[in-house]
């Protein structure tokens, strides 16, 4: 009996846990029995509700399933109809394509040529100065070429005429000198609105300075390095003069020759390439030129005074001849041989004043080419060292090094040749003055000898 009671209690607890009930603890067996009956009733009601809900949901699921099956059947039928229509369209499209190909014939080749011409013209117009005045031309042709290449559509009459118009406009504008306002990028990076003169498709100038076309755009910029002044004068004349014909430095290549021309070093850069040896040569040349100038002025004035003294019998001490002539007045009673010696002494005293610094000019004329040769040899050594390090793959490296090495030779010759000519000229003038002194001294001796006899 006791074991049966224990079993009933355990069964009651399990049923209450399964029903998620939380009754109070039973006091006796009657209470336990009552709670057990209540739990069974509640569980039975809940199970009925579950069964009813399950049957309702099963009906709904059956309805959804029937609808899905019907939709699947409808879509399968639609897919079959579309697939049949697609196959029919493919056949029809193939037939139409064959018919189009047959009807076009050589017309397709014509539009292929049109596409090629449009692409080539677009590339040329991008680098044309005319596009600065008429922007957007190259973009339109480029879009036309891309459209004809990416699709099988044919160009319209308007598009064909646009290609013809662009070519005709380029040819017409290439023979015109046109003025218009546009934005110009200065050498310092500033953008300014300026009046620009376009000379055909060759050059553009503004404010007497040459302009260049920025690649891939329709904008222009000042050349950072401008050509020689003679070209800039012609560029200014194009803008200022109103005559029908003016001189102008035209670049027929559209800027290529001008770009190479401005890259050529000017005189200052050439001299700077000579380095230290070059500056030493120029310093010696300047010193020699100053000495030659001083000697030229001195000998010219001295020669004038000597010629004036030749016309005057009164000896003056402001010129070499006068000082030599004063010797006979100082020694009127000496014999001829003594007078000859005194005159020779006076002439020898005047010769250093006449020939002063001429030897230095001659030395410069000799040393300058030697210094130039020294600079050339040094430059060649540096060039061969660069070739040893970097090889001979870059001809510009060798040409640039050799060119710099030869600059010192040029500077040496530039200094030596004028110095040689100046020395010859000044030496001739000094010898002429000395010759006059010797001639007059011989005349004085001859006159004294005649009086003695």
TrEMBL record:
Annotated localization: Cell membrane; Membrane
Entries under InterPro entries matching the protein: ExbB/TolQ_transport (IPR050790), MotA/TolQ/ExbB-rel (IPR017270), MotA_ExbB_proton_chnl (IPR002898)
Signal peptide: 1-21
Biological process, per Gene Ontology: protein import
TM regions (residue ranges): 277-301, 359-381, 401-424
Record-annotated MotA/TolQ/ExbB proton channel domain positions: 328-438
Predominant location category: membrane
Parts forming coiled coils: 58-92
Single GO cellular component term: plasma membrane
Membrane topology of this protein: Multi-pass membrane protein
Pfam families (UniProt xref): MotA_ExbB (PF01618)
Keyword annotations of the record: Cell membrane, Coiled coil, Membrane, Protein transport, Signal, Transmembrane, Transmembrane helix, Transport
PANTHER family on file: MOTA_TOLQ_EXBB PROTON CHANNEL DOMAIN-CONTAINING PROTEIN, PROTEIN TOLQ
Family named by the database record: Belongs to the exbB/tolQ family.
Protein name (database record): Energy transducer TonB
